[in-house]
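Quick one:
INPUT:
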């Protein structure tokens, strides 16, 4: 539809300043209200629901424009208007909604009970996903749009996300994932029973599909994780359709490898090298961190497991006097670390750098950093899910997957191609 220049000129006759067009009482807002009221009036004219029909040959609808005479024998008829205040990008807009005498008219443009338009719900959810608190969202909407919204309204809008979370958490998964990375971060959540704030672990499973697409498989919040907890998570993945995981990358939690292999017997469990490295550097003073990291790099970048063990011996000989706990920590995790050395550099890079899980964690931490604590598990779940949703929208392809895919096809044969 093209608006004629003559009509535009007529509309802009009285516009002399920007606020005359875009301000609180500007033309744009007035035009939007007028158009909405005109559309609502047209809806009522075509209203097909039965009214009080006086004669069988009279159409069962209002059937006349506002201001016209009521047709003879007309059953249902117009009955004035009621004012509804809608909240949108242009602030609060009072709209006159027409009524019919039988109260059977339910407009489609502005539904009964609707108080927000212009994607205002999406804006509230977007602000919430960015980590703003309810008070911050109130202040932002008031400052930018001149809208006064209650904390209860914001909570109702964001609570609608929980339905989306439940659907997402129960969706069907791929039959096979070449790589699944399990990672955790700590979040402060108020306990419902003790009313004290506790550090709870939020676990995320990030899978890589056969085609190199990153996919967050789910998130789980737990105060005390153990073998039973992890077995339940693995069984949930199986119940949702996953039958095989080629490589499971974990952070060395007790009981985790056993839970994985109980559900996926052929899965190769690999301790996350990044977690081992970070754990090691936690023992170091700041001035030694670069040197220790450089020496450990010689261990995990070695061509073979035997050469890596020799490098670890050399590391221990050099640093045992100052940091005696580092080398033993690597040796305790050695059985889950050495599968790494059997892979081609194309696969090693994906497993070691874990860029995907690191970038996901950055997105989540950015969202939750403004929160001192969450009142419930559900509040934390909402925000973390929205962060995950934003992460997946920004791009899901694993870089340099083609070379890794060829290696997977050779190493795992039918398990990869099935």
């Amino acid at each position: 539809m093209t608006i004629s220049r003559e009509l535009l000129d007529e509309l802009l006759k009285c516009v002399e300043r920007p606020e005359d067009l875009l301000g609180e009482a500007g033309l744009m807002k007035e035009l939007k209200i007028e158009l909405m009221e005109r559309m609502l009036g047209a809806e009522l004219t075509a209203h097909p629901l039965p009214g009080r029909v006086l004669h069988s040959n009279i159409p069962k609808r209002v059937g006349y424009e506002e201001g016209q005479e009521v047709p003879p024998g007309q059953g249902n008829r117009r009955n004035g208007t009621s004012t509804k205040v809608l909240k949108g990008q242009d602030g609060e807009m009072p709209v006159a909604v027409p009524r019919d005498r039988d109260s059977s008219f339910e407009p489609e443009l502005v539904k009964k009970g609707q108080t927000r338009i212009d994607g205002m719900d999406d804006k509230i959810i977007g602000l919430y996903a960015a980590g703003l608190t309810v008070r911050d969202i109130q202040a932002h909407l008031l400052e930018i749009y001149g809208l006064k919204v209650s904390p209860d309204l914001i909570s109702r809008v964001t609570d609608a996300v929980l339905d989306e979370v439940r659907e997402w958490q129960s969706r069907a998964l791929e039959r096979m994932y070449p790589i699944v990375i399990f990672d955790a971060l700590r979040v402060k959540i108020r306990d419902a029973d003790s009313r004290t704030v506790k550090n709870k672990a939020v676990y995320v499973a990030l899978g890589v599909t056969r085609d190199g697409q990153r996919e967050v498989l789910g998130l789980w919040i737990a105060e005390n994780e153990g073998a039973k907890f992890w077995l339940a998570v693995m069984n949930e993945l199986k119940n949702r359709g996953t039958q095989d995981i080629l490589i499971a990358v974990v952070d060395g939690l007790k009981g985790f490898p056993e839970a994985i292999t109980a559900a996926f017997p052929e899965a190769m469990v690999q301790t996350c090298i990044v977690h081992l490295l970070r754990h090691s550097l936690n023992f170091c003073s700041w001035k030694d961190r670069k040197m220790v990291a450089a020496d450990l790099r010689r261990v995990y970048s070695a061509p073979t497991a035997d050469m890596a063990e020799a490098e670890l011996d050399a590391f221990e000989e050099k640093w045992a006097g100052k940091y005696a706990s580092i080398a033993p920590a690597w040796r305790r995790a050695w059985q889950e670390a050495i599968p790494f050395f059997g892979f081609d550099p194309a696969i090693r890079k994906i497993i070691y750098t874990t860029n995907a899980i690191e970038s996901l964690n950055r997105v989540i931490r950015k969202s939750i950093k403004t929160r001192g604590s969450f009142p419930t598990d559900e509040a934390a779940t909402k925000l973390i899910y929205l962060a995950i949703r934003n992460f997946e929208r920004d791009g899901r392809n694993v870089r340099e997957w083609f070379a890794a895919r060829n290696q997977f096809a050779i190493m795992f044969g039918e398990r990869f191609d099935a």
